[in-house]
């Protein structure tokens, strides 16, 4: 770090941080340096004259009892890769499992939350599982089941009701079980327990509800 320069430090190399760095680079006076830091390149200690916090949000896994322990978040590319690997693992487990009801439970994927992330992952999972299932000779495609739980009466509440309804109809055509006005109350190993008391047995549970600002106590 040069002594006679001033430092702009941007914490967070996501959408906002990288966009800011790219936009501001040529506009800053010559005696300013920019440091763009992400989790993977934090240098320890760094002096700053201006600090921008652009560290985004993280999955809030404390919204439902059992969510942190028994459900998967979907926030980062890493989460998506993990989910893809788990889907493959479930197909492998199912292909060698002799009991059909256990196979169906293994191949039941439940997504909690019908907002942008929940709808995206339910659609992607259906697509992925449909094409992957044919490589597992003992897996009957009818054993694969995706349920999307959503707390209000329309999917994608940020968009118009018309688009929410259209998404629902498309999903139903693709045999994704859309359950509206259905709230998860807690999650137990392999089961979602609804507010009504109903239990949904599911080998994989994905929670897309809730985010929280990134906490800074993780910065060592
Ligand atoms: C599944 C999913 C799909 C999405 N699809 C779309 C889409 O199609 N179109 C769209 O416009 N938006 C989409 N979004 C939303 C979009 O990702 C966010 O709005 C956007 O990433 C927010 O930008 P950000 O810079 O605030 O945060 P982020 O992009 O999350 O960036 C924050 C960065 O800060 C880093 N960081 C965190 N803590 C620290 C720390 N202590 N020190 C240093 N670095 C740290 C993180 O590693 C991360 O790289 C999607 C989101 C999800 C979860």
TrEMBL record:
<keyword id="KW-0285">Flavoprotein</keyword>
<dbReference type="Pfam" id="PF07992">
    <property type="entry name" value="Pyr_redox_2"/>
</dbReference>
<keyword id="KW-0560">Oxidoreductase</keyword>
<dbReference type="GO" id="GO:0050136">
    <property type="term" value="F:NADH dehydrogenase (quinone) (non-electrogenic) activity"/>
</dbReference>
<comment type="similarity">
    <text>Belongs to the NADH dehydrogenase family.</text>
</comment>
<keyword id="KW-0274">FAD</keyword>
<dbReference type="InterPro" id="IPR023753">
    <property type="entry name" value="FAD/NAD-binding_dom"/>
</dbReference>
<feature type="domain" description="FAD/NAD(P)-binding">
    <location>
        <begin position="41"/>
        <end position="215"/>
    </location>
</feature>
<protein>
    <recommendedName>
        <fullName>NADH:ubiquinone reductase (non-electrogenic)</fullName>
        <ecNumber>1.6.5.9</ecNumber>
    </recommendedName>
</protein>
<dbReference type="InterPro" id="IPR036188">
    <property type="entry name" value="FAD/NAD-bd_sf"/>
</dbReference>
<dbReference type="InterPro" id="IPR045024">
    <property type="entry name" value="NDH-2"/>
</dbReference>
<keyword id="KW-0520">NAD</keyword>
């Amino acid at each position: 770090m040069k002594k006679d320069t001033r430092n702009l430090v941007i914490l967070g190399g996501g959408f906002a941080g990288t966009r800011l760095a790219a936009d501001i680079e040529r506009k800053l006076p010559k005696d300013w340096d920019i440091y763009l830091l992400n989790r993977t390149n934090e240098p320890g200690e760094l002096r700053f004259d201006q600090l921008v916090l652009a560290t985004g949000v993280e999955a809030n896994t404390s919204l439902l009892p059992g969510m942190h322990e028994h459900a998967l978040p979907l926030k980062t590319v890493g989460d998506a890769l993990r989910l893809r690997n788990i889907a493959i693992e479930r197909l492998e487990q199912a292909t060698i499992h002799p009991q059909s009801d256990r196979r169906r439970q293994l191949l039941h994927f439940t997504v909690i939350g019908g907002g942008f992330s929940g709808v995206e992952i339910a659609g992607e999972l259906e697509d992925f599982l449909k094409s992957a299932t044919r490589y597992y000779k003992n897996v009957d495609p009818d054993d694969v089941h995706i349920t999307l739980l959503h707390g209000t009466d329309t999917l994608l509440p940020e968009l118009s009701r018309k688009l929410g309804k259209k998404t629902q109809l498309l999903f139903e055509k693709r045999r994704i079980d859309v359950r509206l006005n259905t709230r998860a109350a807690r999650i137990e190993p392999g089961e979602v327990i609804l507010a009504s008391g109903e239990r949904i047995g599911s080998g994989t549970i994905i929670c897309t509800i809730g985010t929280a600002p990134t906490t800074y106590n993780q910065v060592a």
